[in-house]
Amino acid sequence: MAINKESNQFTFGFAIGLVVILGVILAVLSEGLKPYKEKNVRIKKQLDILSAMMDVEKEGITRANADVEFKKYVMLEDAVILDYTGNVKKAEDGVSAFDIDIKKEFRDKTLAEKDKNYPLFVAKDKNDKTRYIIPVVGKGLWGPIWGYICLKEDMNTVLGVSFAHKTETPGLGAEINKPFFMDRWKNSKIMEKGSFRKYEVVKDNSGPTKEYKIDGITGGTITSKGVEEMVNRTLKIYATYFKNQKNLK
Amino acid sequence: MSSEKGSEPLFSKKNKKLITDPLTDNNPVTIQVLGICSALAITVQVNQAIVMSLSVLFVIIMGNLIVSLLRNLIPSRIRIIVQLLVVASLVIIVDQVLAAFLPDLSSKLSVFVGLIITNCIIMGRLEAFAMANKPWPSVLDGLGNGLGYGAILIIVAVFRELFGSGTLMGIPIFGNPLPGEESGLYAMGYQNNNMMILPPMALIITGIIIWVQRSRNKALIEEH
Predict the structure, then answer these.
(1) Which residues of B touch A5 (CB under 8 A)?
(2) Of A36, A115, B60, B131, whose CB has the highest number of CB atoms within 10 Å?
């Protein structure tokens, strides 16, 4: 071969050429698969929302029929968007509550508190009871945690929660999405004597005597505290809204 | 190294050995003890082990093929980086395809698909074999090593899922373990072994496989 493949020019040329080719291939692939990935994200969100108010598995809701089932239960046209004071925001054109990415807003350090959106989903269960579903997002030990809290028609009692995490420690913090932990939130009340009362995630099973004390996860203290912070920060805002709604009635 | 003259049959004895060796006496996991980390991490369920094996198989075959095709061009000073680039790109392809078409499995495998990049088996085969051999033997070598890795992964996963969760590929084998509605073995008082779900059990099962293999073939036992 005429080319000296150990020369500096060839080495640089080879490296640049390879990187460009691989870069183009990966970019094309990523763009090509985007619609599929977006659909997966949407369906996952629908399943997460539904699993706060019911046992998704028992109801036979899977990825395949999530789109249809979601529309049956959740009335997106009734969903509202709140601001940080708990008042309903004026609807901006084309922005639906479902499309608001609260994770992104939570991460965005430049976004002012007053510009953040707090969506509230309204749903009806099989017996036509109204359900309110609140999305929450916060910080775990290693990365983001998020979830949905479903309230009963009294706008106070927790029907169920669904938590999820990105990279919490398996066996420890990662347990927040296990039924044993999520079930501990059931039937707790977010308000006491008509105003918001903070949840406490506690140790040593010392909690369950008080319904706002939730037993945390052994070895998952920081994640448990993250859940506590996430729930309290978000519910405080929604509690104001619920209080106003009740006063109207 | 291999510079055979003339045309050699595609599955000559030598080429067949490339596939069968890593499955038995030169298994990358049990004999060379490479790729152990992922063998511990994703063998709780057979499904995950199968998808992980297929992903590694794809990456190792394609990586071997590409590096082997480029072997006469790759400047030796940057060869490791080039290998890494090829592997990393292939892994991203696998990761993206899984995320698009098998989202549930993809989220369960999470970081471990990305960690295929650091799977020593792959880099080892690229550096030790593909850099010095023609494309076809390299593909076979990748196939053999990928299968050898996958075989161990799946064997370990079968044990762990069967005795840890009482299921195989998610299908209940021993009956229903839910308290209050037990059936099958569980009704007779059988319980799942939670130890099986924890990583140490994967190491112990891998150790048992190594033991069985070496006691059947004394030649594999190292002298000290």
Answers:
(1) 72-75
(2) B60
* pLDDT at residue B36, rounded to an integer: 79
Considering only the beta carbons, identify the residue of A15, A36, A63 that sits closest to B78.
A15
Which pLDDT score is estimated for B7? 60
**Touching A: B residues 24-63, CB under 8 Å:** none
| Residue ranges of B 194-213 with Cβ closer than 8 A to chain A | 198
Q: Please tell me if residue B178 touches chain A, with a CB cutoff of 8 Å.
A: no
CB A139 within 8 A of CB A166: no
Query: Does A18 contact B101 at a Cβ distance shorter than 8 Å?
Result: no
**What residues in chain B have per-residue pLDDT under 70?**
1-8, 110, 179, 224
Which ranges of B102-198 would DSSP assign to H, the alpha helix?
103-109, 111-114, 120-128, 135-165
Q: What integer pLDDT is reported at residue A249 of this predicted model?
A: 65
Distances (CA, A) of A129 to A74, A85, A126, A182: 12, 27, 7, 22
Q: Residue A203 forms beta bridges with which residues?
A: none
Q: What is the pLDDT of residue A83?
A: 85
Q: What is A69-129 written as a DSSP string?
A: HHHHHB-GGG-EEE-TTSPBPPPPTT--GGG--HHHHHH-TTS-GGG--EEEEEEE-TT--
Instruction: State whether residue A5 sits within 8 Å of chain B by CB.
Output: yes
Q: Find the residue in A nearest to B96 (Cα).
A: A30
ipTM of this complex > 0.85? Answer: no
pLDDT number for residue B65: 94
Cβ contact A14–B82 (<8 Å): yes
pLDDT of residue A91: 65
Residues of chain A with pLDDT under 50: none
Question: Chain A partners of B78 at a C-beta cutoff of 8 Å?
Answer: 11, 14-15
Strand order in the sheet with A80-82: A80-82, A118-124, A130-139, A144-151, A158-165
Rounded-to-10 torsion of CA B141, B143, B144, B146? 110
- Which residues, including other chains, have CB under 8 Å from residue A22's CB and lie 6 or more apart? B85, B86, B89
Residues 61-80 of B with CB under 8 A from A: 72-78
Q: How far is A92 from chain B (nearest CA, A)?
A: 31
How is residue A216 written in tokens?
Answer: 């945390």
Which pLDDT value is given to residue A208? 56
